[in-house]
Amino acid sequence: MNKLIKLTKYRLFLPITCLLLVLLINVIKTPTFFNITINNGVLYGYIIDVINRGSELVVFAVGMTIVVAASAGTDISVGAVSALAGAVCCYVLSGGEQSTDFYHAPYIVGVLAAILTGMVCGAWNGFLVAKLKIQPMVATLILFTAGRGMAQLITDGQMIYLRVEHFKMLGASIPGVPLPTPVFVAIIVVIITMLLLKKTALGLYIESVGVNAKAARLLGLNSTMIQFLTYTFCGIMSGIAGLIITSRVYSIDANNAGLNLELDAILAVALGGNSLGGGKFSLIGSVIGAYTIQALTTTLYAMSISADQIPVYKAIVVVIIVTLQSPEFARMRKNITAKFSNKQNMKEAA
Amino acid sequence: MDNSVVLTMRNINKNFPGVTALADVDFTLRFGEIHALMGENGAGKSTLIKVLTGVEEFETGEIRMQGIEHPIVNKSPQMAQEIGISTVYQEVNLCPNLSVAENLYVGREPKKAGIIDWKTMNKKSRKILEKLNINIDVTRSLDHYSIAIQQMIAIARAVDMSARVLILDEPTSSLDEHEVEKLFDLMRQLKKNGVGIIFVTHYLEQVYEVCDRITVLRNGALVGEYEVEMLPRVQLVAKMMGKDFDDLAAIKKEDSSVQKDKKGVIIEAKDLGHTGTIKPFDLLLHRGKVVGLTGLLGSGRSELARVIYGADKADHGELHVKGNKLLVGAPIDAMKAGMGYLPENRKEEGIIADLSVRENIILALQAKRGMFKLLGKKEQEDFAEKYIDLLQIKTSGTSIPVKQLSGGNQQKVILARWLLTEPEFLILDEPTRGIDIGTKTEIQKLVLKLAGRGMSVMFISSEIEEMIRTCSRMIVLRDGKKIGELEENELSQSGIMKAIAGGTENE
Ligand SMILES: Nc1ncnc2c1ncn2[C@@H]1O[C@H](COP(=O)(O)OP(=O)(O)OP(=O)(O)O)[C@@H](O)[C@H]1O
Ligand SMILES: [Mg+2]
């Protein structure tokens, strides 16, 4: 048991270091970074903002982690699917009107519709990848391009506004609760997923299929089904993320909702120390990765760098972090420590 | 350096976390000799080869080669190749989705005006393979062919590069006698041309057939270097194991009381077949019996087993298990009906390389139990410990990735996986592949013991000796077709050879 704890610690060592590094830069650049103020019983501050804004990314990253682990491929449609799910939700709740200040259907129906949409999209991706054995990138490219178009069709190419206080709560906060709601959504999603992976054999199955699908099949696992399920699950995650995104702006903008988030989600998985080649994975690693990216984005905003330049800076930081985690770099590090310890041994022997 | 010596390794040390793989090992290879490198599973044979060829780095020691002034340190197999060391590693590492010809020439494709000259490449490939008596379509992708053919291709590739040193790490582990002979002819020819050959094998007869010298390793340390004539078999075994052991002692076939009547039948195949691999066949398998499958390479031995287990889905005929018709859509259906299947290709179909030894052992049982009945940590640990003990798996812990074990120990892990599921019918396709002689005998005994307790075993081995020791009946195959059966009294080396070559057709 002790050994196991040591091992996870070791595996998460780099992701955590990266997160701390980004936070450190934050504190230097923005001394007020960790300041938290209370306003109307709600907490405010940069750090709260990071945790809040990072929630969608965490939800996306959870789905992405599992897809990567089981199929050694990425689902690039998650951003578009979240937009589609958001559009379906808004359409259901607004009864097709462009702007409304009351629900046309019970809220829960809207929520379920969004999740169902995500699930169906995920199942479609899963079908293409697991059953038809299409390259994941190519398979999910279909919804990546078509998803937003379908969302446009539903919203008739317009924005749909839901000016209902209740609708905003998911993306903002519930009166009397000091933390923003998305934070809780993210936590619940992570906990449920963890339970699902660790309390059942699902985690083990996913890793087995990801490492060697042929061998996994021969020892009795249904590799196709497991891959299919991971994509479906990832779709559900996109649906949930879509709900948060639409609630934040109490509207759906099919063109921009969740835009480019698939890339951040993939990055979060990689930053979490997970191999994009599938197999063994760490969910917590991806969660840390997601917050790292969000912290970075927030820093850049705080440094008042304009939105269109942000990707450049992000790219630079990402290059550095990914290099730090590369196997070649790990080998170099190992060699250096080995040399060091050898010298020590020799000294001791002398 | 003595002129007759091509390569020396002195005081080589190599450690892995928790394991001393090599401790002060010396090794000397001369021109024109075939030098066997022997030792139990995990003794350090492959590691010695890997540090020599730059797959792994060594910590201290010196490697020298004739004609090179300074000590050499290879950083990669390519570098080793450049100074004339050609290697066939234990795990065939070719590209399954490239064509045979591409695999033979990858990295050194013949070119015409800067672009790959496919015609020449295919022609040359056919020629090399012909030398080894392999007549296959070189433009098809490698994964169309069996592991034995793949092994031959890996050998052909290494042999084709004009080398001074040729290293073969268990090249014969899935070859039949026939191919082994071809390989030996080739080795003898290279030897005549002055090539120094390092040959790793667990088959003692092969050592005495082709080798000049033997270096023995035990637990990462050098035991000694011997001339073959000076080291009789019994002594060699003693040196490898560190104790006396008679690997040829007769093992008792426990005669189970189960009769060969309808009641004892566990598997019945009626006209079962899979288009393209095995023609429809009838088969009866009984409780408490070990039945062997024999035939030449490509005769359909493995394929027959695969179609019963559902590794290849049957598209013809019926399968009855214990009298009930069973539709096998996927291996899990066969498992639930009490079957187990140890595949021949350990790397591609056996191990889950990145997962731990423990996970690899419990996975099949876990799959059988289903997703929601997760085995507890303690239970998993106990199961793993039990089989590590039973099969003497050499590992520094249950939680280390299985890919870090030596080849033979990986094989034991997969065997453990299936024994743990306690199947009623177990298919073992080359179960002792790469396993050292001591453990091999233990496994043969174990198989007979399990049969004695009522298990039905289907045994496939390219080693006829092993089959005779364990099987009470044999099924003979040729060209993807079952052509006959041999009863207990017909089981002799010559009888089997005659049957597989086409002497008897008792249908
Ligand atoms: N990458 C690795 N990481 C950790 N330990 C390793 C690694 N490779 C080999 N070992 C260990 O080094 C020891 C020697 O292994 P090696 O593969 O050289 O054995 P071998 O003599 O070739 O055995 P076999 O006959 O089974 O092939 C074993 O205990 C093995 O577990
Ligand atoms: Mg080896």
How does this model look, in words?
The complex is a heterodimer of chains A (350) and B (507). With 350 residues, chain A is mostly helical. Chain A has 14 helices and 5 strands. In chain A, 72% of the residues lie in helices and 4% in strands. In chain A, the strands form 2 sheets. Chain A has a 3-stranded mixed sheet with strand order 3-4-5. In chain A, strands 1-2 form a two-stranded antiparallel ribbon. In chain A, helix 3 runs antiparallel to helix 4 and helix 8 (202-211) crosses helix 10 (223-248). In chain B, helix 12 runs parallel beside helix 14 and helix 13 crosses helix 14. Chain B folds into 3 domains: 5-241, P-loop containing nucleotide triphosphate hydrolases (Rossmann fold, 3-Layer(aba) Sandwich), CATH 3.40.50; 264-338 and 424-507, P-loop containing nucleotide triphosphate hydrolases (Rossmann fold, 3-Layer(aba) Sandwich), CATH 3.40.50.300; 345-422, no CATH class. At the A-B interface, helix 1, helix 8, helix 9 and helix 14 of A face helix 10, helix 11 and helix 12 of B. Adenosine-5'-triphosphate binds at residues 16, 19, 21, 39, 41-47, 90, 394, 404-409, 434, 436 of chain B.
